[in-house]
Every structure is written in structure tokens, then in C-alpha cells.
TrEMBL record:
GO terms for molecular function: nucleotide binding. Pathway: Cofactor biosynthesis; molybdopterin biosynthesis. The keyword Nucleotide-binding applies. One of its GO terms (cellular component) is molybdopterin adenylyltransferase complex. This is Molybdopterin synthase sulfur carrier subunit.
């Protein structure tokens, strides 16, 4: 299982700070598809992703025990 953390509006949409997902051997891109479908979140294209506190690319593989964070773009003024 992988711990998936959500921040800002993503946390509000999911209703949890984090969820556990079986994503061992999947890529970040595949995990995004799973989360989009399961939690009805449209397009996570602009979301930055970190694995174990290191920013990750779309094709990086996820392992059991990893912590994956979805970090939405920050805006403000």
C-alpha cells in the first residue's frame, strides 16, 4: 500500500488528509488516473507530485511503503 497525501482543494474534494492505495509497481501517471477516477477529481495534470518528499516525474515507479503527495499549484497575490 502507498500513502497518498492531499493538500488544499484536493483535500477538500477527497474529504481526507490522506488515503491508502494499492499502487505498487504503478507510475505516477497511472496513480493520477486511479485517483481521478476513484475520487472524481478532474485532470490532475497541473498537480506537482512528490514521492517520499522528493519531486517526481510522471514515469517514476511507486513502491509499497512510499508516501506520495499531490501538491496543487499555489496562487495568490
Amino acid at each position: 500500500m502507498v500513502k497518498v497525501l492531499f493538500f488544499a482543494h484536493l483535500r477538500d474534494t477527497v474529504g481526507e488528509d490522506y488515503v491508502m492505495i494499492d499502487a505498487n509497481g504503478k507510475t505516477i501517471s497511472q496513480l493520477k488516473e486511479i485517483v481521478e477516477t476513484k475520487y472524481n477529481i478532474p485532470k490532475l495534470d497541473s498537480v506537482m507530485v512528490a514521492i517520499n518528499e522528493e519531486f517526481a516525474t510522471e514515469d517514476e515507479m511507486i513502491k509499497t511503503g512510499d508516501t506520495v503527495a499531490f501538491i496543487p499549484p499555489v496562487s495568490g497575490g
